Amino acid sequence: EKPTFVIVVHSKLCMSDRDPSPRIMDLWRSWWTATPAKNSQQVTNRLFIDSSSSTTNAKGDPKIPNQHKKIVLSLFIDDRKASRVTQMDTKGQEWEWPSPKAIPKADSNGPSFIRLQNLLTSEQNTDTFHQQALTTQSCTSKRCLGSLMQIPNQCKRQNGLRSKELVMKEAKEFLREYYASLRKENTEAHLKREADVIDEIQAKGIYDLTEQELTYGARLAWRNASRCIGRIQWANLHLIDARDAVTPEDMYEVIINHLKYATNKGNLRSAITIFPPRCDGLHDFRVWNIQLIRYAGYEQPDGSVIGDPANIEFTKICQSYGWQGKGGMFDVLPLLLQANGSEPQLFEIPPELVLEVPISHPEYEWFEKLNLRWYALPAVSCLLLDIGGIEFPACPFNGWYMVTEIGRDFGDINRYNMCKPVAEYLKLDTRSETTLWRDKAIVELNRAVMYSFLKHKVTMVDHHSASNSFMQHLQNEQKLRGGCPADWVWIVPPISGSTTKVYHQEMLNYKIKPCFEYQEDPWKIHVKGTQRKFRDIAKLVVVSADLMGKVLSKRIRATILYATETGTSERYAKRLKKLLDIKFDAKVMCMEDYDFSNLDYEKLIFIVTSTFGNAEAPHNGEEFGRRLHYRSHSVDSQMDLNTSRTGSLHLPRRKTKMRDDEVDDRASASMRNLKYSVFALGSRAYGENFCAFGRSLDDLLHNFGGERIYPLGEGDELCGQEESFRTWAGEAFRAACDTFCIDTMEDSDAAVSLVSIPSWSEKNFRLVFNEKKTVIGYMEALSKIHSTQLQPLTVISVTNLQSPSSQRSTILVKLRTGNTSNLCYLPGDHLSVFPRNDPEMVQQLLDKLADKEPSDIAAQLEYLSNDGIWTIDTYMPTTFTLREAFLRFVDITSPPTPQFLQHLTNLATDKNDRDRLAELAKGSKEYEDWKFWRNPRIIDLIEEFPSLQLPATLLLSKLPRLKQRYYSISSSMAMVSDEIHITVSVVTYYTKSGKLRRGTCSNWLNSLKEGDIVPCFIRAANGFHLPEDHSTPVIMIGPGTGIAPFRSFWQQRISDKNREANAFFPTTKEHENTEIPNGIDTPPITPTEGEDLATRFGKMVLFFGCRESTKDDIYKKELEECLSNGALDEVYKAYSRELNKPKQYVQDLMKDHGGDLLHMILDEDGHIYVCGDVSMAADVSRTIQNLLIDYGLYNQEDAIEYIKNMKETGRYHEDIFGITLRTGEVTERIRKTAQRAWVMIRKHNFRKSHETNGDTVVELVGKVRINKTFDKRPLDRGISVDVVMRTEDEVPELKPQSISRLFSMPGSDGPTMSISTSFSGEQLNLSSIDSPENEQ
Fold first, then answer.
1. How far is Cα 603 from Cα 402, in angstroms, rounded to an integer?
2. Looking at residue 648, what is its pLDDT?
């Protein structure tokens, strides 16, 4: 008979005795796999027992049901990251997982599991965490030492270094816990770090913790501090790493910085400063003060004390080192600092850094006569910090006061002893203790302290709130770690103890490392040296201006992360660094190069990012966004890291709102110490998806507990992006300085820093020509400078899909991939194409260069480094020709930026040109209008400012790189495995000034011939793939070139149906020579006889729109073929410029077939795919919303929510592009909206939902489809009126104008509404809205 394995689960994750959670099962399987002694047995009998719900025996262990033969295992779940299994077999042999050395043995003196009860609620919890305690308490069965201030044998003494074996053991355990917190336990990084630490310990007996490890250890030590009631804030602890301190002066500088940061003008912040660790016990760094700020106590000849009696001894020590106090009640003691075991030195704390609160009472005015006050910052400086076997004797840290701590100091007999004076003012009877006068006096003292701190806006917590937060902390720790060390004697407040919740909670006290420990007073073990002369003491006490200046300029590290497709975000990030470098230690990194695990330990982060397409992340920001999004989901959600989406419209929402006091065990606790601000770039042409990725990152960081030091900045590329960035950067910089208590510069200095001319000059950049050098190929060069492996695709053909009589051109470009395995794609993905500039334009530019350099000789761009060495500029390839550079690498067609124009002011010889360029370089409204109306290229710039002398080095080093263009792939690998097809609209348009412009990439592609090479790579469009379930209906909506990705969809459907029908047709010469109309590359579907594929494949419907059927109906014959062979079920076409017919758009077709659409969407969970420009995509979304409303299924709010939910759940897909044949029209309309004020007045008069008489949605839609309930009619959206301001050109300046219009509703005989307005300058005033209809 196989034995029954009884698994005792010590965690709340177990759902029931015999039905454990998946997490329990995973741990069980992991243990079973990792146990060689037992893995050969087949486990047929298992019994899971929840220790928290089962009965216990006399020792407190869960009772195990009697079985004929059993093996009992205890499954420990300390948190959701770490676990272990302990097995006791029938012979008493103990097994452990993952390894016996990694987990300490249970305490043999007591039960393995201790049940703790709340006597107020009768709730019980089982503490298992105490089994990880590494030290044994001094209490025995005969005595308890819990009420002692310092427990004997646990006070750290100066006894040298620990043994290497002990340091190594604790280091391994700490590193295991640290990497487990990063979800990197037993990874290559963990094992390498452990090996390096072991080598370092073997060499010198200690090792250096990284800053991240030190931060984690310090926070964990606070989390493990059993005597602290405020530990719920443990993850907010800010580290000041001072391990590089050498002298007492160094220590003083850092402590002053600590005081300033932590005080924060009364809004206290928890912080810890850590000085060098103990190296041999003879060269310790120590802060002799018990607290950084404390009041002196002067003992008088008669035995009385002026000041704080608790500090008499330390006051005398300070006096012995030359300090002379003023003899007052509240004199702040100096700092006595010891560095490297040397003689301690005295330093006065500047009075302006000591925030003190005068104590007054909310009711009694006489209270102020007591002249009481107290310092705001409680910074303990006498404890030792033990992390991973390394001891830090000097580690001052602070939180903030609980009111009873100060009230106790005022009231205690051995402190300020203010109870009796207060009682006398209250006229209480102090002759007998039975009158409880002390209790009344101490309560009033606490009331006064609480009132005073709140009055002066200084952080403080009352003991009841602190008690409640600690109970929440206990619950969190029980859930995450299986218990929480707590000293009941210290946790319960000194007054009103029984009225707090913690009073009724049983607690278990034990020590877990990392930890804080008591240590002997330094003056008791220090051998005092020779007496210093008064002159030397004076030098140490006086705070010089130079020293204070060095303190206040202490640099905080700031990380700037960027993600970009075109380079704009990178350029802005580097400019931000120049500003931050004035006060911070700033570094710039691309998101894809950033180690995401460092995010938990960052202090200050700035993010500058664009949004790609329709709310997607730029390619180099995808992984960062995916990981951040992944961390926003709880473990139970089973979130797949590889499929998580980014962008504001694609982020799944949390089902339930997180409570303010709830701690998310994935990330929220660990990011509360992060300060951040985000600048998002985008285009308002994308409507609600404007700056979507940046907005998402901003929201996620805030939700995780990060502190947003300045609101999200947004830059619109259509209008004012430069000015928006400068405003945000300046304000964010000042906010960062204020956050970290750094004195800011003058506003003019910050502005100069942001617009300062970059470091280019003709003297520090040069071109070096060498005819003997070989120019590297442009494919290799493009791959290197763009950090992307490009693939060369060969042109098969370029075919114009439109009629020869059409004035427009849309081309089908077929490219051959050959054997390039890297170019695998799915229907819906994008092809990234690196274009080439127009050769004629490049030649014109070369002819106009000032330096007339040779254009076809190998060259390299070099700059003069700070060391005076000429260095190759990696912005360009290592070798190139000028012609190739302007053809392939440099963008010469985009309008120049204000930063580039700054360089030109000194290169123009004509004064008028210089003045005009200087004005444009400001990036103000003048620049925006110039860019919009002229859309100037570099060649146009030279023509407009003929006195310009442009050197090649300026263009090569400061113009942006020529970026890739993205096109939806119009083919499926299932049909053409070695080809990629794209559908391209050839862009030509006129600027507002009448100049002809041609799209760089589309016109280049149109000029290609068979055999030409196109540099490309694939960009996955994860949000635009076909459903995995073939039976899901697919609704495709795309006018013009918006049909491009849908061609890949129907080709994939043809292939899938052929495969299902077992009618696979291999590609043969006979097939290749078969004439197939307009691009169809496979034979028609011939399903197996008698087999119905309709039941396996959902409907695939296309809504397509173009101008004229005879000129613009691209893929017409191919669509007819797809309808005949069943690849497409329906194709609806709309023509907007058909001769002698009214305009019709795809939205109108959707209204005509609204019933069918709603049936597929609501009844069959169909997917919607929209491809087109932003305006069309917004209209489609509104049309579906109105269908839901007007067919009576939803009200307006629910319809909007339904569409939003479709987008979030991946049923509504959009592939939006901003460059179309209507670029000028769309850009001008949206730009006016963004630049000038506009007023929209809308009267919503939606009808209430139709009565359905109990019909279900399915039945109602069915009625709609057969026109039983509703007739086809115009969708009534109510009254919609747009009143848009006219521009300055249309309205004379300062001359008020009046506008009055009458509006008629459809079907009415006369006017139904009149609107009167007045207009002056840029102000529109609404005078009246009159309507004769009562309803209106």
1. 26
2. 37
Looking at residue 1078, its amino acid is N
Enter the tokens of residue 696: 């998402």
List of residues 6+ apart from 524 with CB closer than 8 A: none
DSSP states of 578-646: HHHTTTEEEEEEEGGGS-GGGGGG-SEEEEEEE-BTTTBPPGGGHHHHHHHHHTTS-GGG---TTT---
- How many residues are given for the chain? 1336
Estimate to the nearest angstrom the gap between the alpha carbon of 1026 and the chain centroid.
Answer: 29
* Contact residues for 777 (Cβ-Cβ < 8 A; gap 6+): none
SS3 559: strand
What's the one-letter identity of residue 1153?
Answer: H
Give the pairing type, strands 1279-1284 and 1238-1243.
antiparallel
Determine the Cα–Cα distance for residues 1230 and 344; give it in Å rounded to an integer: 69
Q: 949-966, pLDDT tens digit by residue?
A: 899 999 998 888 898 898
* DSSP conformational letter for 1009: -
Residue 295, strand partner residues: 332
Q: CA-CA distance, 2 to 40, in Å (whole number)?
A: 12
Are 1104 and 1135 within 8 A, CB to CB? no
- Half-sphere CA count of 815, side-chain side, radius 13 A: 30
Query: Rounded to whole angstroms, how far apart are CA atoms 212 and 537?
Result: 38
Rounded to whole angstroms, the Cα distance separating 458 from 453 reads 5
**CA 1250 – CA 1263 distance, rounded (Å):** 13
User: To which residue do tokens 């216990």 refer?
Assistant: 56
Question: Residue 343 in 3-state DSSP?
Answer: coil
DSSP per residue, 276-337: PPPSSSSS--EE-SSBSS-B-EEE-TTS-EEE-GGGHHHHHHHHHTT------TTPBPPEEE
Most distant CA pair in the chain, distance: 119
CA 1195: distance to chain centroid? Answer: 35
pLDDT < 50: residue spans in the chain: 1-2, 12-18, 33-44, 54, 58-60, 67-70, 77-109, 530-553, 634-669, 747-748, 755-758, 1063-1091, 1219-1226, 1230, 1233-1258, 1260-1261, 1263-1316, 1318-1336
Round to whole Å and give the CA distance between 921 and 578.
19
Query: Is-contact 179 519, C-beta < 8 A?
Result: no
Amino acid 814 reads K
| CA 251 – CA 392 distance, rounded (Å) | 14
> Is the CB of residue 1281 less than 8 Å from the CB of residue 1241?
yes
Q: What is the pLDDT of residues 321-364, one digit of tens each?
A: 999 999 999 999 999 999 998 999 999 999 999 999 999 999 99
Helix (H, G, I), strand (E, B) or coil at 1204: helix
Which among 28, 222, 400, 490 is annotated as catalytic?
A: 400
Distance CA 49, CA 236 (A): 37
| Catalytic member of 14, 228, 279, 1016 | 228
Any catalytic annotation for residue 400? yes
Q: Residue 722: enclosing H or E segment and its boundaries?
A: helix 721-739
N-term to C-term CA, the chain? 84
Element (H, E) at 1050: helix 1044-1060
Structure tokens at 425: 């003012």
Answer whether the bond into residue 98 is a cis peptide, omega within 30°: yes
Could you give the 3-state DSSP secondary structure of residue 1015?
A: strand
Q: Residue 835 is encoded by which pair of tokens? A: 């274009």
Q: What gap in Å lies between CA 980 and CA 369, rounded to an integer? A: 87
- Tell me how far apart the alpha carbons of residues 752 and 761 are, in angstroms, rounded to a whole number: 18
- Which of the following is catalytic: 194, 405, 723, 731? 405
Of these residues, 84, 162, 231, 888, which one is catalytic? 231
Name which of 617, 687, 602 is nearest 651 in CA terms.
617
Do you find a cis peptide bond into 350, omega within 30 degrees of 0? no
Q: Is 1016 a catalytic residue?
A: no
Per DSSP, what are the bridge partners of residue 1316?
1300, 1328
